[in-house]
Amino acid sequence: MKVAGPFVAMVMAECAQVGLMIVSKEAMSQGMSSFIFVLYSNSLACLVLLPASLIYHRSGRPPLTWSIISGFFVLGLFGFLAQAFGYTGINLSSPTLATAILNLVPGFTFILAVTFRLEKLDWKATGSIAKVVGTVVSMAGAFTMTFYKGTHLVHSPPGFTNQLLSQQSDWVLAGSFLGMDCVVTSAFVIIQALILKKYPAELILVFFYCFFVAILSIIVCLVAERDITAWTLKPSIRWTAVLYSGIFGSAFQVGIGTWCLCRTGPVFVSMFKPIGIVIAAAVGVICFGDTLYLGSLIGAAVIVVGFYLVIWGKAQEVDVDGARTVRGTSESSSQKAPLLPSYQEEN
């Protein structure tokens, strides 16, 4: 259950992420600025998270220090950069390319997590080997879905063209922005994990994260967006996208990710990025009439195998730690047991 709960939660978070990419792409294609979008969505998330965090952490809240607040600001800075790079890349390309490029996040995160000793890497332990192999396999499956098509399995309706998911305006520039998004996102996850070790109050952390992202967005928007019409929420797709992003993107998705990060570690959370392309492909076939290719089916199967390896490796580490704890307790009890008779005899 320690793995199953975060697993279900992260799948829900990735579903919300794919929906966010689709609605944000549609809003920006209607002329909405990516900076304005980040500002409105994080401001709305602050309004949702402030009462929720105070209620959820109404007792036993860790004290706020300047060091912790500074960490929140750094987290907000990296989060703002990740959102700015990500939405700019989506605006220049499509949600499909964005989910494909985000497959680089697990690799970057794994390297940083081992560097900062947030993840165990013992080449003699089967759990560690399974996590490494699973990460590589999942990334390979995601890239298979991206670059290999193969034969058609399910055809789109005649004359149907999915402009939203297949628009190709500037793939090179978009890929550069999305690549920077991957690097910053990996660093964001590591910083978040380090802060949670000192301040394990998830919703309060997410509130301050959204708060500082909103503050940074205001500064950038006042400089970059001089046209007053860029601040409006018309047409209706703009406020719909902001409402979805504020509730299901910044509040729900980041909150769920933080909750899972506190319980499983950064590598487990980042491993769910490749599943985004599976969800995006399924949404494309079911809702937008995309064509299903053999490569998508093979890639999805490979990703599932990679996920199983990572989860199995994580479960092995949990079992080993639990066994060590039980064994340590038993040894401690056995060491104390001989002292009791002698104490009674002396009395």
TrEMBL record:
The name this protein goes by in its record: WAT1-related protein
Entry's Gene Ontology molecular function annotations: transmembrane transporter activity
GO cellular component, one term: membrane
Topology versus the membrane: Multi-pass membrane protein
Transmembrane segments: 31-52, 64-85, 97-116, 128-148, 171-196, 203-225, 237-260, 267-286, 292-311
UniProt region (Disordered), positions on chain: 328-347
Domain EamA: 20-144
Subcellular localization(s) per the UniProt record: Membrane
Provenance organism: Linum tenue
InterPro entries registered for this protein in UniProt: EamA_dom (IPR000620), EmrE-like (IPR037185), WAT1-related (IPR030184)
Family according to the record: Belongs to the drug/metabolite transporter (DMT) superfamily. Plant drug/metabolite exporter (P-DME) (TC 2.A.7.4) family.
Keyword terms of this UniProt record: Membrane, Transmembrane, Transmembrane helix
The keyword Transmembrane is assigned to this record: yes
